[in-house]
Every structure is written in C-alpha cells, then in structure tokens.
Amino acid sequence: MANLGDLNFPFFSKGDGNNSYPPEYELWEKESFRKLQKDFAAQFETVFPDKLAPKTVVIIPSLSLDQEILSKIDGIVHYEERMLCLLLLLRMPRTNLIYITSTTMDPVIIDYYLHLLPGVSNYHARQRLTLLSCYDISPRPLTEKILERPRLMKRILDSIPPDHAAHITCFNVTPLERTLSVQLQLPVYGCDPDLYELGNKSNGRILFRECGLNVPNGFENCRDESDIVKGLYELKRMEPALLRAVVKLNEGFSGEGNAVFSYGDKNPEDISETWIREQLPHNLITVAKELKYEEYMENIEKMGGVVESFLMGKEKRSPSVQCRINPLGDCDVLSTHDQVLGGNFGQIFTGAYFPASPEYAVVTSEAALRVSKALQQRGVIGRLGIDFLSIKENDNWEHYALEINLRKGGTTHPYLMLQFLTDGHYDAASGNYYTANNQTRYYYATDNLKNKRYIGLTSHDLVDIAINYDLMYDGAKQQGVMFHLIGALSQYGKLGLVCIGDSPQQAELYYQRTVEVLDKEGRN
C-alpha cells in the first residue's frame, strides 16, 4: 500500500460522516491516481492481449451511487453479484481473480458460475479465485466498507502473486474507488472520477448537442425547486400541446432518479409559474417507490438535474449502445440493446433484447461512437452506455439521445456472459453478434423477474429446478438460460436471467419456459 505515514494523513475516516482530507492529500491522491492510470496503458498493451499472461483482476462490484435512491430497490446488496459474470475470465489459465462483496455468497452460486467455464476444470479455477467479504450489509457503498478495513486490504494485496500484473475493475469510479486504487497502488479500468460529471444528465445533453444529435427539448443544471418550476413553465410555452415532462436527477440509476410531471387538461394560457409551483408537490410522480417529494427536491439541490419533454409517439423504442474506450484511446461499439422499460410512465429499466432492432442498430451505434470519441478526447476511459429514445413516424425512425452512463450498466453483465461463453463478438457494421464459429446469437435479459411465489426458494432449490427441467445453459449448443442475482431469490422472490437463443424467438421461448417452471415450483 502507499506509504501515507510520512504525509501524516488518516487512512480513511471510519463511517463518521467526515470524509474530508486536507487539500495536500487530495492533490497527492489525484496525482498518484493519474500516474497509476498512465502506467496502466502499458500494462493494457502488453498483458491484456496475451491469454497466458500472469495477471490478477481485483473485482469491486460496489454501487457507489446515491444510497437513498438505491435503498428503494429490493435486494440491492445482491446487485454486487451481477459482476460474477467476470468469473468466466478464469477460462484464461494464468488469470487470478479476487472478488470482494459486502456479505458472503452461497458457495452454490459460485459453483454455478464455475461450471460454465469452457475448457477449465472446476478445481483449477477455484485455485485461482479468492473470495473476500466485509461481513457488513449496511446500506453504504462496498468500497467505503473496504476502505474501513485495512486488514482486508492487506489480504487483497497478499492474494496477488508477485509476478502478476494487476488492476481493479468496478461498477463505477468515484472518489472512493480512486482512494482505494491509490491505497492499493493498483490502476482502475474505468473513468477518472474528476471526469465522471461529463456523464451526468445535464452534461450529457450538452455533449449530445455538440455531437450533432437530437435531444428532447429541455433545460440542464437545475439546482432547486425554482429551477424545476421555471423549466416546466418554459417547456409548456415551447410545446403548448405537451402533456407531461420528465425531471431527472443528474446521478440517477436505472431510471430510479426520474419523476414525471403532468400538466393535466388545463389550457396552456392558464398555466403560470405560480400554478406549477402549487401543483408540483401533487403532480410530480417519482419513479422510485416511497420517495417523498421533499426528499426528491433535496436530491435536486444536492446533485442537480434536468427538465425535459416527455416524448410521445405511437411506436417508441429505447435502444442503448454500449461502448468502450480503452487505455490506449481506442473507441469501440461493444453491443446494442432494445431496453424494456416499466414502472411509472415506463421510466425504469427492467430488461433488454440483444441486439437492438436491425432497423436502427447501425445508426444508433454510429451516433454513440461519435459521443465516445468526444469523451475520449476529454480523457475518459472504460465502459459506457448511451441511451436513446426512438420514435417511428411515417416509416422513419427519429432518434433522441437521452443520457450517458460512464459505468457498467444493466446490459453489461448479460453481454459479458454471452461473449465469454461463446468467444464471439458484436459486429457494429451489421448489427449482428457472431460466435467463434460464425453463428448468430440473440438473448433476452432481465434483472427483474419477480414473483412473491418465488420467496423461499434457495440457491440450492434453483439449481435443482434448473437441472430437473433442463434450464441450464448448454455449452454444446451455445444456447440456454443463465441465472444471476441468485442471492436475492429467497428473501425477495427476485431473480435475473439471460436467455440465449439462435433466434430472437428462441431466446423468448427460453424465458417463457423458465417463468412457467418457476411459477409452478414456487410456493402458493
């Protein structure tokens, strides 16, 4: 670990709410982090292409986002399991993994992932996998918990063989992850937190316009209730026929930071800022359940937000494009998805079809690549997602860029599962995915298969059911069902699925079959 003794800095404040450091430390940490990231480019160029190179990946699946919003999601601590797809990196015989979680995971879950490994014995993989836990399920970011535990960090370092190149991969990179990176002296494959705001809702809209993309009418950098009121009033003046508007927290997650304001049936000339201010507490419906109006406005003041038109159309889709900017500055389109949205006014991400419709997959990929190159010029590296809303009018699709996510997202782990299992790639030029033997594959994925009847089904029960009903992924056919969020099943009746088929219809059939079986086997 970095020697902070001479600098006389604290290791980390232990959950007392005072996480501030003297300016000298912050400057030192940022400079140390930049040096680590600069050196990482050389590691990436020499070690990453070599599947036999000795390397260790430290996996930190911390959701370092607004904890008030995250607390509204059932089973949120089990979302740390979504990055278990990275266990499939153990197919490389000299790669070690260190996976840290808030609480211990059922060994059955780990065994389930390891059985998917092609060409590697379970024993060999286990020898190269280190599982560590904070034994702490408090509603705080995992990274913060790790930083409070110097002995745990020493165990992380002790688990890295001396001849291994090593780096950290995580869900998103905030100042917490930067501190951990510097303390461990390990680079991070992700965006410098000083650049993270480039991907918030306000700056995303600004960047989209710079790249020549359509955006909904709206206003950025709203900082309080007055800004929201003014934005809603001006929107109605711009679009007299507008029925609804969307308010978004700058740092929302999976749509949980969104709220929808309804103008009702009043005539536009009768709507004033005073009327909107009076109606706002009643007509602004938050997407996150049980989030009170006062709490939402406190979040607006804390992180800022945007107001924009609620786009209408007879046929609407929500494509998303995943890109990657590597440490050498290369930008690539990794995948496209058609997102499935649910919840109030269709604002919450519930699942996705892969790949996106051939009607617009290539067009949205080209637009997303322009944005990725603009971000790369500003110093961003790592995975990112760009979400669109597409409306079909007169047989033509009009695409509106909505937001940038400078992190892994809900479509990252399903695609990684497919890629690792089939050794294939997404061809952005055609909009198709091809396996190593040049076959096309499709999937439907969700984090939100939920039913009260599933409550009480344990990890052991799920594996037993999957085997008995032939729901396991078939490596020979490169088709079938893979489960994730397994730890959330027994308490919340909630589960994630990736259903892979050789056609969209086959993927859908796998999903329907799985739901039928679980509905049958779940308790009444």
Comma- or semicolon-separated keywords:
524 residues; 3 domains; disordered N terminus; nine-stranded antiparallel beta sheet; D-amino Acid Aminotransferase, Chain A, domain 1
Write a structural description.
With 524 residues, this protein is of the alpha+beta class. The protein folds into three domains: 5-189, no CATH class; 217-309, no CATH class; 315-521, D-amino Acid Aminotransferase, Chain A, domain 1, CATH 3.30.470. It has 16 helices and 20 strands. Strand 14 and strand 15 form a beta hairpin. The longest helix is centred in the first third of the chain and has 25 residues, at 23-47. The radius of gyration is 23 Å and the shape is globular.
Count, helices: 16
Q: Average pLDDT, to the nearest integer?
A: 90
How much strand? 15-25%
The total count of strands amounts to 20
Tell me the name of the CATH class of the largest domain: Alpha Beta
Spatial gap, N to C terminus: 53 Å
Q: What's the helical proportion of residues?
A: 25-40%
Give the class from helix and strand content and strand pairing.
Answer: alpha+beta
Largest pleated sheet: 9 strands, antiparallel
Assembly state: single chain
CATH superfamily of the largest domain: ATP-grasp fold, B domain
Contiguous runs where pLDDT drops below 50 for at least 5 residues? 1-18
Total domain modules: 3
CATH architecture assignment name of the largest domain: 2-Layer Sandwich
Shape descriptor reads globular
The name CATH uses for the topology of the largest domain is D-amino Acid Aminotransferase, Chain A, domain 1
C-alpha Rg, in Å? 23 Å
